[in-house]
Amino acid sequence: MSGTLEVTVIEARNLKDEDIVGKDDAYIELYLDKDYKQRTTTISGSDNPTWNEKFTFNLQKHEDHLHLHIYDEDVVGRDSVGSAKIDLKKHVFGKGPYEDWVKLPSMLGLRSKGEVHVIIEHHP
């Protein structure tokens, strides 16, 4: 698949960082290929941050998944809040704009880490 992928990160809700008391300073890293990552700005002090930020990726062959990683920015480094993977073949390619609340799956039976609202569009 070629062309461009336009990803709009709208907002997140109910973000849970199990290690931290208080609110998250959240940002999202997104990528198709680990060598080229883009990220949102950091929204401080919210478990329901709003970004409304748009990102464009040039698609290469075999890039069939969009990865989202949500982090809590910390004074020393960052804590992972959760991550999700969106199957572009299933939801986006040849189907027009895809809009969804993407769940951040829980690990080891813990409750969900929250959800991220995205719109993804493929321009061949």
From TrEMBL:
A molecular function (GO) term: calcium ion binding
Q: Which UniProt keywords apply?
A: Calcium, Metal-binding
| Calcium as UniProt keyword | yes
CDD domains in the record:
C2
Q: What GO cellular component is one of the record's annotations?
A: membrane
Entries under Pfam families matching the protein: C2
Keyword presence, Chaperone: no
Q: Which residues form the C2 domain?
A: 1-102
**Full protein name:** C2 domain-containing protein
